[in-house]
Specification:
- The complex is a heterodimer.
- Chain A is mostly helical.
- Chain A contains 10 helices and 2 strands; from the N terminus they run H-H-H-H-E-E-H-H-H-H-H-H.
- Chain B has a 6-stranded mixed β-sheet, sandwiched between helices. In chain B, strands 2-1-4-5 form a 4-stranded antiparallel β-sheet, covered by helices on one side.
- The chains are: A mainly alpha, B alpha/beta.
- Chains A and B meet through helix 4, helix 7 and helix 9 of A and strand 6 and helix 3 of B.
- The complex binds adenosine-5'-diphosphate and magnesium ion.
- The site of magnesium ion has 2 residues of chain B, from helix 1.
């Protein structure tokens, strides 16, 4: 899958403070969890994609995400469609099979709920790059610390977040190196041969990860990680007017969403 | 002179999935037997370009031919018989249980016979002086030895072209020299050499042609003696020619860049009779 690390660009979203973007992300996630009507969720998805365009993130990456997600999405959707206990029958499949909790009908509610669930997952997956791809890791770390999250946890969190892309990069490099050495299996049409080839990259990958973590350990120790003093920071982050306005907007939307929900809008 | 094109790149553009345009409209021709250095700042697209030569990356736009084949379509395993690629980090290349097995891996993959594999392994071990290490586990070797082993792995495939991605980074002076000696020998034996590097000293001493990359484009393509006269352009791209070259430039000998101590001696020797001294003498008069 595509690389999801920070890409330097100069857009509105890139300039926002990392804290603002964190709040934005949480707000979107909350709103998406509040509504169970797929059309509401779809509207939010379009908002998120609009933000992608605003941040000049490559939209074809969304296509990538869809591609990898299709299989799981179909399964999730089918499970809901078949097993959600709805009232409005849409389609008769068979007689009821009580043993597995199947009523024999696909219901409107099941379809709607399944759609909403899938769309929610898509929103969750497309919202993360809005933060991660527009914010340098160091800024993100600082944001977490400013939000009074202990430095130790902030460090673990950001390291874990950067670990995934770095392992992915390394895996790709190793695969490329093996291709260069005549391993044709990655290009085989046979799924199982490809799978076996993928397993062969594990040795260098794991050894490399161990080596990396040892180096990280030394680097951290030599920079007095965990020293019992009040540390200071090289970088500083400052809220600008855009940040305040944006935050206010987020909170307002969140409140509106909750009121709507309490008035039974956006539920199936 | 008989020139046979080995690699032909035309108007190559590469956009990574995350939207980074790493190459924008690169055209380049490499003949058989050339000794080429690709230099440029970090992120200028050197590695991206080189990975197109053996199909590890495919063009977003443009064409690339390797040994007459269309490299944007051919399989990597097929191209790896023509292009040997030595990765920047040897650890990404090594995964077998002994040095010997590691060197024999490539030939085995491309379907060499048992005898042929043994012959190639023995020959490669001898060329790189790895005799004393042949039963060791690759991960137990020092960085310098692992780097030599990575070269050995490419060598045993007997390709026509070698691509070295920053072969001397992280090596001490003698380790670097040792690798450069091996590369020079490969070139003498008729192979085409492409090295990616930051080391201008190395370019001056070894390469016959230097391609300077900047922002995904080729900024300069000339023999080192000519390329290194463009001091201002190079400085703008954070590249510094060797000290002796800059010294000569400051002295006003700007016709042709001085690349090494020997050339400098020819210039400053009182009754210089060599053609270089003559040239630069004239250059001084003009300036
Ligand atoms: N796998 C990748 N995914 C996304 N962007 C990449 C990838 N590899 C390199 N890049 C980007 O492409 C540009 C050129 O990189 P590269 O060819 O590695 O440069 P160089 O080898 O000259 O240092 C850089 O901006 C780099 O961040
Ligand atoms: Mg590189």
């Amino acid at each position: 899958m595509a690389d999801v690390g920070y890409v330097q660009k100069d857009t509105f979203l890139h300039r926002l403070d990392a804290r603002t973007k964190l709040v934005l992300m949480l707000a979107i996630l909350l709103v998406v969890l509040v509504f169970t009507n797929p059309f509401y969720v779809l509207a939010i998805l379009f908002l998120v994609l609009g933000a992608w365009a605003l941040a000049k993130l490559p939209l074809n990456m969304v296509a990538d995400i869809f591609k990898y997600f299709t299989g799981i999405a179909v399964i999730i959707f089918a499970l809901q469609a078949f097993f959600y206990p709805g009232q409005t029958n849409l389609l008769r499949i068979s007689n009821a099979i009580p043993a597995i909790g199947f009523s024999g009908y696909i219901t409107v509610e099941g379809v709607m709920y399944g759609l909403a669930l899938v769309l929610r997952l898509v929103v969750i997956m497309t919202v993360a790059p809005l933060l991660v791809m527009t914010t340098p890791m160091s800024d993100l770390m600082l944001a977490l610390v400013k939000l009074k999250i202990p430095y130790r946890f902030a460090f673990i969190l950001t390291t874990a977040m950067s670990l995934f892309p770095s392992i992915q990069n390394r895996a790709e490099l190793i695969q490329q190196a093996q291709l260069c050495r005549g391993v044709g299996d990655f290009e085989s049409g046979n799924f199982f041969i490809r799978l076996r080839a993928s397993a062969s990259i594990l040795t260098p990958l794991i050894l490399g990860a161990f080596r990396d973590s040892q180096i990280l350990d030394v680097a951290m120790s030599s920079r007095a990680f965990g020293a019992p003093v009040q540390r200071t920071y090289l970088l500083e982050s400052h809220f600008r007017r855009a940040d305040y306005l944006f935050l206010a907007g987020c909170l307002l939307s969140l409140i509106v969403a909750i009121i709507l929900r309490l008035a039974h809008f956006g539920v199936v | 002179m008989d020139r046979e094109s080995m690699i032909t790149v035309e108007n190559l553009t590469h956009v990574y999935p995350n939207g980074v345009e790493a190459l924008c409209g690169v055209s380049l021709n490499v003949d058989r037997g050339e000794y080429l250095a690709i230099v440029g700042q970090n992120g200028s697209g050197k590695t991206t370009l080189a990975k197109h030569f053996n199909g590890l990356l495919r063009p977003t736009q443009g064409t690339i031919k390797v040994g007459g084949k269309d490299a944007s379509k051919a399989r990597v395993s097929e191209l790896s018989r023509i292009i040997g690629y030595v990765f920047q980090n040897p650890d990404d290349m090594l995964f077998c249980n002994s040095v010997e097995e590691e060197i024999g891996f490539g030939p085995r993959m491309i379907g060499c016979s048992k005898d042929e594999i043994q012959r190639r392994v023995a020959e490669t071990i001898q060329i790189l002086g790895l005799e004393s290490l042949q039963d060791q586990h690759p991960f137990a070797l020092s960085l310098g030895d692992r780097q030599r082993l990575a070269v050995a792995c490419a060598l045993s495939m007997q390709p026509e072209v070698f691509v070295f991605d920053e072969p001397t980074t992280g090596q001490d002076y003698f380790g670097g020299q040792r690798i450069m000696e091996i590369i020079d020998r490969l070139h003498t034996s008729g192979k085409t050499i492409i090295i990616i590097t930051h080391d201008m000293q190395m370019v001056a001493e070894h390469a016959q042609r230097v391609v300077v990359m900047s922002g995904g484009k080729i900024a300069l393509d000339a023999p080192p003696a000519k390329a290194f006269t463009q001091i201002e352009l190079l400085e703008k791209l954070s590249l510094r020619p060797p000290q002796i070259t800059r010294f000569a430039f400051q002295m006003g000998w700007t016709d042709r860049a001085i690349l090494n101590i020997r050339e400098m001696c020819d210039v400053i020797r009182p009754q210089g009779s060599s053609p270089i001294a003559g040239n630069n003498g004239r250059g001084g008069n003009h300036g």
